[in-house]
Specification:
116 residues; mainly alpha; 3 helices; rod-shaped
């Protein structure tokens, strides 16, 4: 009887040792997917503005657009290599910086901010 109880307790311990990391790993994977999705959303919005905003001859707006474009490229590189929530957050933060520069350019051109 005692050996059977020890066997059952041992089996439960082994099962817990296997299942806990699997469950935690799945949770972490969902967190990374959600963070990557948020970063991709900001990346796509930034790309839309970079590709469609016309600044004409305004030097200040052009510089803001160039800065936004640099951040768009950097975000793409960060996203391509992101494997953690922190790396995805860095990519999103970079995209948000670019969207702020888009807002600067739009204000300079007399348009409503619409990036960030």
């Amino acid at each position: 009887m005692v050996s059977m109880i020890l066997w059952i307790v041992g089996a439960i311990a082994v099962a817990a040792g296997v299942l806990v990391p699997v469950i935690l790993g799945a949770s972490r994977h969902r967190e990374v997917r959600a963070a990557k999705s948020a970063a991709r959303s900001a990346y796509r919005r930034l790309g839309f503005h970079v590709e469609t905003l016309e600044v004409g001859d305004d030097v200040v707006a052009r510089r803001a657009l160039e800065d936004a474009s640099e951040r768009w490229r950097a975000t793409g590189e960060l996203l391509a290599n992101a494997t953690s929530v922190e790396e995805c957050a860095a990519a999103r933060a970079t995209a948000m910086e670019g969207l702020k520069r888009i807002d600067d350019a739009r204000r300079r051109l007399g348009l409503e901010p619409g990036g960030a």
